[in-house]
Amino acid sequence: MLVLIDESGCPGFKLQKGSTPFFVVGMVIFKDFVQAQAASVAITELKQSLKINPEFKFSKTRPAIKDKFFDAICQYDFEVRALVVDKSKLYSPKLRHDTDSFYNYFVKSLMQYDNDVLLNASIKIDGSGDKEFKKALTSYLRQSIGQHKIKKFKFTDSKSDNLIQLADMVVGAIARSYSNNRKDGNRWLNVLRKKGKIKNIWDFK
Fold first, then answer.
1. The total number of structural domains that make up the chain
2. What letter would DSSP give residue 160?
3. What pLDDT does residue 2 have?
4. Which of 167, 186, 166, 168 is nearest to 176 (CA)?
């Protein structure tokens, strides 16, 4: 089992000064490594045909390209689970003022309440944090979630990993659906739903 984790939004709480009102963290889950590899190859071919360099990134991709991406990738066998945090409803002082604790807590929550999907999973997380942060997060998740769910962790740069790019696009599509001022708010989430990829989107309360 291969699991790709990415987030959309920031952990900041200056909501009147540019902090995102929502924080979304999601997992793209491949139960079959062959399907994961096939999806990665398809993303490489799509980048070449569309002249995308260096990566697919939801926030920087034109709508027509998003359409092509989701149409191409949804033929592969994966599922999506996500957690959405409305920061205006979060009152914990620790989570509001400690960005590491905020990130760690919600990644843990997403993985912990997984409906028993995770089993000996190889986890890839988008991130370029310092070594101590990565070590602390890995230890925290192993202790909080349990050994049988996690086989190994790897932090990777999205530019060099097609499947992390997939996670970025999927989580971006979910986050966009929470933007009330966007005409295309549900456009790509609806594609994922129609293709049966969305297993759970949990609004944290």
1. 1
2. G
3. 97
4. 186
The CATH number of residue 93's host domain is: 3.30.420
Q: Which of 192, 11, 202, 151 is nearest to 95 (CA)?
A: 11
Strands (E), the chain: 2-8, 22-30, 79-86, 121-126, 150-156, 198-203
Average pLDDT, the chain: 92
Residue 90 phi, psi (nearest 5): -105, 125
Contact 185, 153 (CB under 8 A): no
How many residues belong to the chain? Answer: 205
Instruction: State the residue for tokens 């309440």.
Output: 113
Range of the domain at 85: 2-203
Question: 2-8 and 121-126 as β-strands: parallel, antiparallel, unpaired?
Answer: parallel
pLDDT higher at 205 or 43: 43
Would you give the end-to-end CA distance of the chain in angstroms? 29
Q: How far is CA 113 from the centre of its chain?
A: 15
